[in-house]
Amino acid sequence: MAADGWPEDAVEVGRIVDAWGVKGWIKVQPFSNEPQALLASRDWFLKAADADRAVKPAAAAGRLPPRLTVTAARRHGDGVVASAEHVPDRNAAEALKGARVFVSRASFPKADDGEYYWVDLIGLEVVNRQGDRLGNVADLIDTGPHTVLRVAGDGPEAPEHLIPFVAAYVDDVSLSERRITVDWGLDY
């Protein structure tokens, strides 16, 4: 944890979209189709939707501290609903609408062999079988059937590569070496 109580490995995982019910539950739109990290963590950290600052406690305004202790969370449709300490009613839940939700990366469930969290892949160097550097993973794109790595080359004139994240093209992912080896040409 940083000196201000904010986790140094915080990852944004969703956004509070509304209150849910009358007993202080909140509805969260997760940024993943599989929101295990959101469901597994009991400590959620909030930032205001319109700024890169933590939500500040202000009892008079009905705001909550930047950390929520979640007492229950479950999937509901395409979202997640949750209750938290110190959110006693619908009005308190509505005051959180729009807040960005972060959790500590350390609280994510362990990924199975051959499975990776996107947040762990972003920034990794990508090289081909010949050892040529293609760039770094800038983003991932979910196309439905599979994920595609968006690899940004070095410099503004360098080409961008869109590489399907499937075994036919990805030979190895080494998180410890921060490298992905692919079967991909420089001119693809």
Fold topology:
Blueprint lengths: L9 E11 L4 E6 L5 H5 L2 E5 L19 E10 L2 E6 L5 H5 L5 E5 L13 H4 L3 E4 L4 E10 L4 E6 L7 E5 L5 E5 L4 E4 L6
| Percent range of helical residues | under 10%
| Cα separation of the termini | 43 Å
Task: Round the mean pLDDT to the nearest integer and report it.
Answer: 89
How many helices? The count is 3
Radius of gyration: 20 Å
Q: Report the biggest beta sheet as strand number plus sense, adding barrel if it closes.
A: 6 strands, antiparallel, barrel
Strand elements, count: 12
Percent of residues in beta strands? Answer: 35-45%
**Mass-distribution shape:** elongated
Class from helix and strand fractions: mainly beta
Pick out the low-confidence regions: 55-62
Placed side by side, the strands forming the largest sheet appear as 1-2-5-4-3-6
Can you write the helix and strand succession as a string?
Answer: EEHEEEHEHEEEEEE
What would your notes on this structure say?
With 188 residues, the chain is mainly β. It contains 3 helices and 12 strands, in the order ββαβββαβαββββββ. The longest helix has 5 residues, at 36-40.
Brief sketch in words of this structure:
This protein is mainly beta.
Identify the notable features of this structure and list them briefly.
188 residues; mainly beta; 41% strand
